[in-house]
Structure to design on (241 residues):
């Protein structure tokens, strides 16, 4: 039966080898049953450029490449931690990079795909930070530094972000309802799938006289991952362990 899978927020790194192995097993065992696998951001805990080759990166790329070679179409969206994933990574894995947001048609249902950070508009400190680090000149300067310098900087960003987050009220780190509504209206979408907030749930949103659905993906853990599986019958959640 035809099906499409959605995952996000795996946060893979050399410090999370259990999750890395879980993802690699998922790619060979579960993902090949799907026609499409969409990874909606933050596959990696921090991506400092496609020229970073330390383990377990090569093993992850090989497993993704095997999946795309075997016939499952692999789609990748940037998250706030891995927005430096570039063309080389995509070439090596067979993944296709999607813009955030992207509208797709899932068995007749117009569905908007996002990482989710763009929806958190009340978190103004983050919105400002995101604008700054995604500036092409800033990125060019960052990429011109050595791997070691970039690793140090990423560590600093992570630490500063952790500190900033600990001082923020939980509510401002969630999506803003008006922002969600405006994306549904602008893209004429019935469904929205996103990650980032780590608050998995299926929300029903009434706008005018129409129902819309917001499916929030879960982050992955060392022993299990969660996915949303879409078939002609509808949207369902699944745990992989
Ligand atoms: O990531 P997460 O979910 O924990 O928190 C996010 C927001 N934080 C971020 C920052 C990333 O975690 C940092 C890691 C990036 C690694 C990539 C390396 C490549 C960098 C390339 C640069 C070109 O996205 C967090 C949100 C939270 O989601 C919920 O939505 O609140 O936002 C922040 O915490 C941002 C702070 O509010 C403001 C910025 C503080 C950092 C300032 C850094 C200064 C560094 C100086 C370096 C010399
Ligand atoms: Mn994120």
């Amino acid at each position: 039966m035809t099906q499409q899978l959605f995952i996000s927020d795996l946060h893979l790194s050399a410090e999370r080898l259990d999750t890395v192995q879980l993802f690699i097993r998922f790619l060979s065992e579960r993902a090949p049953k799907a026609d499409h696998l969409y990874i909606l951001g933050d596959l990696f805990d921090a991506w400092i450029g496609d020229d970073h080759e330390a383990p377990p990166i090569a093993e992850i790329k090989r497993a993704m490449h095997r999946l795309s070679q075997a016939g499952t179409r692999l789609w990748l969206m940037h998250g706030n931690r891995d927005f430096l994933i570039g063309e080389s990574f995509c070439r090596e894995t067979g993944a296709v990079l999607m813009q955030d947001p992207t509208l797709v048609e899932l068995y007749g249902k117009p569905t908007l795909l996002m990482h989710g950070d763009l929806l958190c508009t009340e978190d103004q400190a983050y919105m400002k930070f995101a604008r700054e680090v995604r500036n092409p000149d800033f990125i060019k300067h960052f990429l011109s530094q050595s791997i070691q310098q970039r690793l140090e900087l990423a560590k600093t960003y992570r630490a500063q972000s952790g500190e900033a987050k600990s001082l923020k009220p939980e509510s401002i780190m969630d999506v803003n309802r008006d922002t969600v509504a405006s994306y549904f209206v602008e893209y004429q979408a019935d469904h929205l799938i996103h990650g980032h907030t780590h608050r998995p749930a299926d929300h029903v949103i009434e706008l005018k006289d129409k129902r819309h659905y917001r499916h929030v993906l879960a982050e992955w853990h060392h022993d299990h991952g969660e996915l949303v599986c879409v078939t002609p019958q509808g949207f369902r959640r699944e745990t992989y362990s």
